[in-house]
Amino acid sequence: MEKARRYSKKREALIQALQASTEHPSAEMLYATVKEQFPDLSLGTVYRNLSQMRQDGTIISVATVAGQERYDANIDEHTHFICRNCHQVIDLFDVRLEDDHIAEAAEKYGHNIESQELILRGVCTDCRKAVN
Predict the structure, then answer these.
(1) CATH code of residue 10
(2) Are both 60 and 6 inside the same structural domain?
């Protein structure tokens, strides 16, 4: 039997902060944002809630960037670009693996593929401009 969770103002503030962000924040970034509203908030509370929200499917973990796990409240299938210089995580909505490639992989390896995650890495436009 699944344990029901009580409503929590802190959890609600965390999800709202994550939904309002486009930078794919880490737990530490979210902690700094929500701590202003809840001075008694602990980093452990942030990590526990992010873990639970990830298990519930409310959020996704994008990747570990510069040693910090980064999160996204947009759970719709989309691609991410991670800049190796500034560590910015950027949503790309029109880039994905072709369905026939996924079908080929499923057939070749015998797996039932239910979703895909594509992460592209390189140098973002801002960092490229800074070099020139």
Answers:
(1) 1.10.10.10
(2) yes
- pTM for the predicted model, two decimal places: 0.85
pLDDT digits (tens, 9 = 90+) for 45-84: 999 999 999 999 999 999 999 999 999 999 998 999 999 9
β pairing state of 119-122 and 68-72: unpaired
Range of the domain at 87: 76-132
CA distances from 21 to 10, 16, 49 (A): 17, 9, 17
Quick: pLDDT tens for 83-116.
999 999 999 998 888 888 888 999 999 999 888 8
86 & 46 share domain: no
Helix (H) or strand (E) holding 99: helix 99-109
| Shared domain check, 4 and 44 | yes
Per DSSP, the residues of 68-92 read: EEEEES--SS-EEEEETTT--EEEE
Q: Tell me which residue of 27, 28, 33, 40 sits closest to 13, measured CA to CA.
A: 33
16-27 in b/e form (b: 16+ CB < 10 A) is ebbeeeeebbbb
